[in-house]
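Case study.
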Amino acid sequence: MKLPAALETFADREHVFEFMARGSRVPRLDVSHNVILYLEDITVAFDGFRALNDLTLYVDAGELRCIIGPNGAGKTTMMDVITGKTRPDSGSAWFGQTIDLLQLDEPEIAAAGIGRKFQKPTVFTEHSVFENLELAMAGDKRVWRILFAKLTPAQIERIESVLETIGLKDQRDARAGSLSHGQKQWLEIGMLLMQDPQLLLVDEPVAGMTPQETERTAELLLGLAGKHSVVVVEHDMAFVRSIARKVTVLHEGSVLAEGSLDEVQNNAKVVEVYLGE
Amino acid sequence: MHTPLLKTLLTERGSQVFLGVLIVTAILVPLLNLAVPADSALHVSTYTVTLLGKYLCYALLAIAVDLVWGYCGILSLGHTAFFALGGYAMGMYLMRQIGTRGVYGDPVLPDFMVFLNWSELPWYWHGFDMFWFAMLMVVLAPGALAYVFGWFAFRSRVTGVYLSIITQALTFALLLAFFRNEMGFGGNNGLTDFKDLLGFDLQADATRIGLFLATAFALGGGYVACRAIAASRAGRVIRAIRDAEGRARFIGYRVESYKLWLWTFSAVLAGIAGALYVPQVGIINPGEFAPINAIEIVIWVAVGGRGTLYGAVLGALVVNYAKTWFTGAFPEVWLYALGALFVLVTLFLPQGIVGLLARARKTA
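After joint prediction, the assembly is written out as follows.
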């Protein structure tokens, strides 16, 4: 039997109607101009102190970018603006060409494809390593869906493969709170991977790590670049040297210099405010 | 951990013990009351049956508080509001059942309205002559209040002690409102002098047994429902919110929706507990809204051990048994004993009695 054309969409099991589309408030990510993050003239002031001062910064799709700068340069505030925790007083922040980050809140931004790793490792300490990854998994996160959600074999396989990547296979069922500092950092990177974001914001990933752990982390992050865009904020210059292709130096809330690490290190202004100290 | 609910219930020690004891009690108590002659040593008096029924209502209320506090970190000091609203909904039905048997013999108006010279039933009393409508209200009234309250509170990201304080304010405000005669809920006397429920005489032994069984059933059902939520992925999200709310948000969970949903469910459980409580004690008055009662529930949960559900049940039973005994033997000491208990548990037994038992089993 042939259905009238108008009814055909109703018979199509795969068809997703506009009003049913998840997160319809958030348009699809579009990086056709090869830039994934646009921050333009962002200013954030706390009681008159300008944490960010006309900050303008672009990150390319698939890039691994390091951001350095002295304490108080505005690195964490910048991450807060991108993830929706802090609203800027002025300026614009776009994720790709289509998504205006300033219109969205934290869960919407996370769903749009931006993942964040905090400076202090924050994993769910009372859950097992496996459960931490399960919780971070990309997908519909509304209450009713999650209440009846069951792990599919494909999802379990995905979690196992991330466990392998972050080297925590043997700690699969351990309480996350019992992990060492370095392992917690990796678990958090693993949780970012489960979210499968387009853009990863990583805040001081090697703080407090042993040299071996630092090396392992550098490998992890390098493995991510290309498939994902990664922005790393870090103080450890040796670590930055080992991973960075392009470095941005922040100072007093705006960009002071940008380029390869060597270029930046030879920049007179940078030497004056930061490296020369 | 990733096992189906039934398997969880059958393998988890605390759930096994709790459900086992509940089922045995639900079978034995009616038998010992109805089948054993009154002069036998094994006879359970109807007074005891009702007292047990009352304790089971408290246990259900404790589970409701443990669900939000132990699993999601929302310390509610206002669950009495939902408990009492459920109780009032049931009380209104029972009042309408009295009919012409009241002191003033008015077929429609409850006695207190006749006493206040009211000529007709306020609009919100309509429908309560029907059992199904009253039962709907038992669920809807606390549920709707919790939903509206939670919607504002969680969306504004009110957490911690601030949230506890406004829950306390909520129940206190309702206490004051229900004290007023103009509210139409019987003022400070509340609703009482109930005669029968669905045609069964409330004073009859069989009705008492029926109410006891209904309460045991509600407690068992509430327990299984809470356990199911805790064992689901939503349960893991809820515990994640308790431990690191900001992190859960950055992973993409809409924290306020989870809290609101859990909070409302918990309020409905508390309302059901209240509705079962009222016909067994025979009265509902604004005293049930008292903030001190709400704090007492938190003590039950803390004493039993929070975040386990069966710990909440145990705490409710132990503390209430102690209360019954103390207020009989040394009435003036009870509040001091309660306060001391709370301090001691907080200092020495952060996991409550359940935690103590678990530790004892490990070292044994």
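Observations recorded in class. Chain B touches chain A through 25 residues (CB under 8 Å). Residues 5-363 of chain B form one domain. We will return to this complex in the next lecture.
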